[in-house]
């Protein structure tokens, strides 16, 4: 056997060496697992099996997944077979713990930091990357069958070894953390499973027993969590007694973490299990709760048997109230209170029985002394008050105890520097937070002093309002509010006692019943709701929550009780601000009393009712709120504004308190509404914020609209008031409107300050106290660390003058981290302040976090709102003669008839409005017509005056017209004479043309006589070219003549161009004659000189004629100079051409060929060309005649056009053109 063990050890050693062994880890694991499974077949001894288990245990650290996959079934089988052996069982359990452990990322980081090897960390990362955690897979394999777990539970027996029991508990804890429900299922069917675990809680000697007990305490809450069957089994196995014994043995709530584990196990057994709660009461375990808090036990009837016992009880009570509280002790005490709260969490017989048991054992009194008369931390006091509220809910006995019990409150004496409030901060909780953040004050332990005994109800009201002097903030005050609400919820005696306590003693003594029921708490509450907010805003200890909480507490007294509302209406305030008895609210029904009321209203010295005082404070707060908003906006914009009053958030909170209180007071109370509407200024003050479209917090607008709706809905009292329901209806519709009214109310649920209110809103405020205490503890630790560092430095300096420079830094290693945390907190605070400032600048200050924080409403008002908001939002749409409740009770037929009547009324109203609009339109049109007639009459008068003044001008114009007519006739005659002259000019031009024709005929005859000598081909071509140019000029003349005839313009230019054309043609004809003369000169040399002279003479004559024409053109008027210059340029061109023709003629004369053969050969061709030239001359002559005829027609047309224009009376040009034409013709 030993040989086999050595073989396994040698194989494992070889495998553990780096690179040693030829077999892999998986082969080794499989081999070891196979040996465990087939141990009976191999006949392995216990030692060999233990060696295999130890080998697998060693391999499980580095090859966790492989061991679980291949060897876990073998290990479980070995556990069921070899559990009796301590060493083998211990090895099996420790190996299972390794396999079932699920490593979190934080644990892995811690393991690496603790020196884990790189190879192990790499193997662990590989296992994590392979899929789900291997621990969960191995847990599923372990719990696949109940057998392994059933074998594990007997190992917890007291006779087993310590390590076996401890490892078994650790394995059970791992299995519960991984798969709690499957473990609970296996434990339920295991024989004696719960008893085995509870045996570990038994008291034993030695540290080993305590370790096992502590591990069992940690295991118990996980085992019984959310499983009622296991909770019952464990409870019936005696868990309550054992856990309470552990707490008592360890020193009750001063026992540290061990007591915390025991109390958490006790709480886990009672949570959500009514059977265990009843069993806890039946086992008389409830009386053990108060002693756990070190509260002294008292006699059942509160009467101690002797004076010595009385002194001893007082001493123990003093020690209870002034005991020291560390952090762990506070945690344990809170768990005790949680256990007591679980016992009264129901709502039936079990709750009432547990309330009675807690009252009988002194737990109620313990809570009252702990919350109102001890030095306990504020968070613990707040939790005690919440528990006390649950105890007094629907429990008259507990309520009576609070009414009759006297308490000596404890007042905190702050350090001298802390007594001066910090400027700009309001509220006790803010001052406490500031003190907690200041390490100088945090390092100083506060001192306490006991005040005179006073009723517990008075201490409760002072704690809620904040005038008790106790250390605490908003969380403690919220808990006091919850406790007060439960105290007066269904206790009319307590309500009337507090309300009657508001009256002075002289007024109270008039009624013996009232005097006996008066409570001093009423005076404190009366002062809170009636004091002027502006006065308290400038005080040293200004706190806006005083007004909000006072109104909230007073609303609890009035809610749902007309008797309480009547008692409150009987309270009035005189001019000195003192409460007096006011009986006006009780007078109603007859005219005499109404007259008395009117007389009271008219008396300026008459005391004001409590409702009117609240309205006056509301109006004052509204003005202060507007001023605070302006200052904060100016400050956000950079202006320097000094303010010693509340902030805008505080004034808003104060207004919310007054509006909520008035809404609850007036609800279903017509007499209260009558008192509210007794002054007309009240209605205007409430309507003003609702009617404003901007610049008002929507929460204030909605609550004010709700208050108006409540007043209108329940204004059903027939008494005589300043504003009735009938007069209020049109005011609300004209100033606000039904739609806007509904919108204002509907916007409240969307406000974050209203939306964040939950049923446990007051319980959540405990976090404020816990945060403050954590800040104080941190500041205290920092102060202690600084003090210790200073002492260390001083000691080091005293012992060695040459101290190491690193020692100062090592003395306080936590300072940098603390500074970083403080910097981050300051950065977050700075960012929040910047965001709030932006909202203030943009007019959205009510959305800033600073103004949203804190307490605004409680859950009872939210429920009240949800029940009545729909009815109130529709209230002003109801006719003043009816009511919403009456309409809700009407039958459908009547409602249908009412709707039809409303529709008819709407139709009549619409038609009435249309008639009014038409009449208004008619009046407007009448006024408009009258104004227009007056304007037209004025215009007519002006026109007549202008007509009378313009008659002489008309006569002058007529005379001028006659003169113009005569002048026109004269100009017409002159034009006719000019036309006559133009005709004569045309006749002369015709005669000149005839002369030209004669010359042409003469030249033709001469050409015929000189047929012997023919012109050359070159000259004929030149003549043809000249002829074509003449035709082109003629065509241009014809075109211009036609356009002039169409436009009816002046004909002088055309006549001049015609004469120039005639002259040019005459010159061309002379050129042709000269050329013919040249040709004749070739044949007859003797006659050439004479013909040349003749041609020169003719040329001179033509030049003379041209000079005469030029002289005639110079006589034309200055305005036609441009046209004459153009004609002159034309003449120059023609003269140039004439000179060229002369040069050509000379060339022809000097370039004669001596041989005549060439002439004779081309004689026939030259004769043909000459005949063609003659034909062209004849065609030019005919065209010239046509031109003259056209000119005559143009002249006649021009005359006819001028005559027609003059007949029409249109202006025509003067007769200068005709005169010039006639002159030119001359």
Question: What does it look like?
Answer:
The chain is an all-alpha fold and 1226 residues long. Among the domains are: 24-102 and 133-407, Alpha Horseshoe (Leucine-rich Repeat Variant), CATH 1.25.10.10; 519-583 and 607-757 and 856-889, Leucine-rich Repeat Variant; 900-963 and 1090-1148. It contains 60 helices and seven strands. Helix 55 (1052-1083) packs antiparallel against helix 56 (1085-1114). The longest helix has 118 residues, at 892-1009. The C terminus is likely disordered.
Mean pLDDT score: 77
Q: Shape from CA axes?
A: elongated
Spatial order of the strands forming the largest sheet: 6-5-7
CATH architecture of the domain at 24-102 and 133-407: Alpha Horseshoe
Q: For the terminal residues, how far apart are their CA atoms?
A: 172 Å
Q: Estimate the strand proportion.
A: under 5%
Radius of gyration: 64 Å
* CATH homologous superfamily annotation of the domain at 24-102 and 133-407: Leucine-rich Repeat Variant
Largest pleated sheet: 3 strands, antiparallel
Helices, by number, come to: 60
CATH class of the domain at 24-102 and 133-407: Mainly Alpha
Helix proportion range: over 70%
Secondary-structure class:
mainly alpha
- CATH topology category name of the domain at 24-102 and 133-407: Leucine-rich Repeat Variant
Q: Please give the number of β-strands.
A: 7
Low-confidence stretches: 18-22, 107-116, 417-443, 512-516, 585-602, 803-819, 1041-1052, 1083-1088, 1116-1121, 1148-1163, 1215-1226
């Amino acid at each position: 056997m030993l040989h086999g063990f050595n073989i396994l050890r040698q194989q494992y050693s070889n495998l553990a060496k780096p690179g040693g062994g030829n077999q892999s880890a998986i082969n080794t694991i499989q081999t070891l697992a196979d040996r465990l499974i087939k141990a009976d077949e191999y006949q392995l001894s216990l030692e060999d099996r233990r060696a295999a288990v130890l080998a697998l245990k060693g391999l499980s650290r580095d090859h966790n997944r492989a061991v679980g996959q291949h060897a876990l079934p073998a290990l479980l089988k070995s556990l069921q077979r070899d559990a009796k052996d301590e060493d083998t069982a211990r090895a099996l359990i420790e190996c299972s713990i390794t396999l079932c452990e699920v490593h979190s990322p934080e644990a892995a980081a811690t393991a690496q930091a603790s020196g884990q090897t790189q190879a192990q960390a790499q193997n662990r990362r590989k296992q994590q990357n392979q899929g789900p955690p291997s621990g969960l897979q191995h847990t599923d394999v372990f719990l696949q069958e109940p057998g392994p777990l059933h074998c594990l539970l007997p190992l917890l027996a007291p006779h087993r070894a310590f390590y076996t029991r401890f490892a078994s508990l650790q394995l059970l804890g791992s299995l519960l953390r991984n798969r709690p429900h499957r473990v609970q299922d296996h434990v339920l069917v295991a024989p004696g499973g719960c008893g085995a675990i509870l045996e570990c809680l038994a008291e034993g000697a030695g540290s080993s027993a305590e370790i096992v007990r502590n591990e069992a305490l940690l295991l118990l809450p996980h085992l019984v969590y959310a499983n009622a069957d296991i909770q019952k089994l464990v409870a019936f196995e005696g868990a309550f007694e054992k856990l309470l014994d552990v707490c008592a043995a360890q020193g009750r709530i001063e026992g540290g973490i061990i007591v915390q584990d025991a109390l958490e196990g006790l709480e886990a057994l009672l949570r959500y299990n009514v059977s265990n709660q009843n069993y806890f009461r039946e086992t008389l375990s409830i009386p053990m709760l108060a002693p756990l808090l070190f509260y002294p036990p008292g006699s059942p009837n509160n009467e101690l048997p002797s004076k010595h016992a009385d002194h001893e009880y007082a001493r123990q009570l003093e020690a209870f109230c002034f005991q020291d509280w560390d952090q762990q002790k506070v945690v344990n005490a809170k768990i005790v209170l949680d256990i007591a709260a679980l016992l009264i969490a129901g709502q039936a017989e079990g709750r009432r029985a547990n309330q009675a048991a807690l009252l009988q054992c002194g737990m109620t009194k313990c809570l009252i002394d702990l919350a109102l008369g001890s030095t306990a931390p504020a968070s613990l006091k707040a939790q005690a008050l919440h528990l006390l509220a649950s105890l007094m809910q629907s429990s008259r006995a507990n309520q009576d105890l609070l009414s009759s019990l006297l308490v000596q409150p404890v007042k905190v004496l702050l350090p001298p520097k802390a007594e001066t409030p910090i400027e700009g901060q309001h509220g006790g909780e803010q001052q406490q937070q500031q003190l907690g953040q200041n390490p100088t004050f945090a390092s100083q332990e506060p001192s306490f002093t006991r005040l005179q005994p006073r009723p517990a109800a008075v201490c409760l009201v002072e704690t809620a309002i904040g005038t008790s002097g106790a250390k605490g903030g908003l969380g403690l005050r919220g808990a006091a509010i919850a406790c007060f609400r439960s105290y007066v919820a269904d206790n009319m005696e307590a309500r009337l006692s507090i309300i009657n306590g508001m009256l002075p003693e002289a007024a109270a003594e008039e009624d013996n019943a009232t005097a006996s029921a008066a409570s001093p708490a009423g005076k404190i509450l009366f002062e809170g709701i009636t004091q002027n907010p502006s006065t308290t805003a400038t005080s040293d200890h200004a706190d806006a929550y005083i007004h909000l909480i006072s109104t909230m507490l007073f609303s609890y007294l009035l809610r749902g009780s007309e008797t309480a509302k009547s008692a409150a209406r009987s309270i009035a305030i005189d001019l000195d601000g003192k409460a007096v008895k006011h009986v006006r609210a009780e007078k109603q029904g007859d005219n005499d009393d109404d007259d008395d009321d009117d007389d009271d209203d008219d008396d300026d010295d008459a005391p004001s009712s409590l409702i009117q005082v609240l309205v006056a404070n509301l109006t004052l707060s509204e003005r202060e709120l507007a001023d605070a908003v302006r200052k904060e906006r100016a400050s956000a914009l950079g202006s320097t504004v000094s303010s010693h009053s509340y902030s805008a958030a505080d004034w808003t909170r104060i207004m919310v308190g007054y509006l909520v209180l008035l809404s609850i007071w007036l609800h279903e109370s017509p007499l209260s509404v009558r008192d509210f509407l007794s002054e007309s200024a009240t209605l205007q003050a409430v309507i003003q914020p609702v009617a404003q479209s901007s610049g008002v917090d929507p929460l204030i607008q909605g609550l004010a609209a709700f208050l108006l709706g409540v007043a209108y809905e329940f204004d059903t009292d027939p008494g005589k008031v300043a504003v009735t329901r009938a007069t209020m209806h049109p005011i609300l519709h004209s100033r606000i409107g039904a739609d806007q009214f509904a919108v204002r109310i509907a916007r409240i649920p969307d406000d974050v300050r209203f939306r964040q209110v939950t049923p446990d809103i007051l319980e959540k405020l405990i976090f404020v106290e816990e945060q403050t205490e954590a800040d104080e503890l941190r500041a205290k630790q920092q102060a202690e660390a600084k003090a210790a560092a200073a002492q260390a430095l001083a000691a080091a300096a005293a012992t060695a003058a040459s101290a190491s420079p690193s020692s100062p830094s090592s003395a306080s290693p936590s300072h940098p981290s603390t500074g970083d945390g403080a910097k981050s907190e300051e950065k977050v605070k700075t960012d929040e302040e910047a965001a709030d400032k932006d909202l203030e600048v943009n007019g959205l200050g009510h959305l800033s976090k600073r103004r949203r924080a804190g307490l605004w409403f409680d859950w009872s008002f939210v429920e009240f709102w949800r029940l009545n908001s729909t009815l109130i939002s529709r209230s002003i749409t109801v006719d003043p003669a009816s009511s919403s409740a009456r309409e809700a009770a009407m039958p459908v037929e009547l409602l249908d008839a009412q709707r039809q009547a409303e529709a008819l009324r709407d139709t009549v109203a619409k038609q009435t409005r249309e008639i009014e609009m038409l009449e208004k339109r008619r009046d407007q049109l009448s006024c408009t017509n009258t104004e227009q007639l007056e304007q037209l009459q004025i215009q007519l008068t002006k026109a007549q005056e202008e007509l009378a003044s313009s008659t002489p001008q008309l006569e002058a114009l007529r005379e001028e017209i006659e003169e113009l007519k005569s002048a026109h006739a004269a100009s017409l005659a002159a034009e006719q004479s000019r036309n006559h002259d133009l005709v004569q000019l045309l006749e002369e031009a015709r005669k000149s043309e005839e002369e030209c024709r004669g010359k042409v005929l003469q030249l033709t005859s001469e050409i015929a006589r000189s047929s012997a000598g023919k012109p050359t081909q070159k000259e004929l071509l030149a003549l043809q070219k000249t002829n074509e140019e003449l035709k082109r000029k003629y065509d241009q003349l014809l075109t211009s003549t036609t356009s002039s005839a169409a436009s009816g313009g002046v004909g002088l230019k055309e006549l001049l161009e015609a004469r120039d054309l005639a002259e040019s043609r005459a010159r061309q004809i002379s050129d042709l004659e000269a050329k013919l003369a040249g040709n004749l000169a070739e044949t007859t040399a003797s006659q050439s000189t004479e013909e040349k002279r003749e041609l020169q003479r003719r040329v001179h004559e033509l030049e003379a004629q041209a000079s005469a024409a030029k002289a005639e053109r110079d006589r034309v008027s200055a305005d036609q100079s441009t046209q004459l210059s153009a004609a002159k340029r034309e003449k120059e061109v023609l003269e140039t051409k004439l000179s060229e023709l002369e040069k050509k003629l000379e060339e022809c004369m000097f370039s004669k060929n001596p041989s005549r053969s060439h002439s004779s050969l081309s004689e026939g061709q030259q004769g043909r060309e000459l005949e063609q030239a003659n034909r062209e001359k004849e065609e030019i002559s005919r065209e010239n005649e046509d031109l003259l005829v056209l000119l005559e027609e143009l002249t006649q047309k021009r005359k006819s056009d001028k005559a027609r224009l003059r007949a029409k009376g249109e202006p025509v040009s003067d007769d200068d053109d005709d005169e010039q034409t006639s002159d030119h013709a001359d």
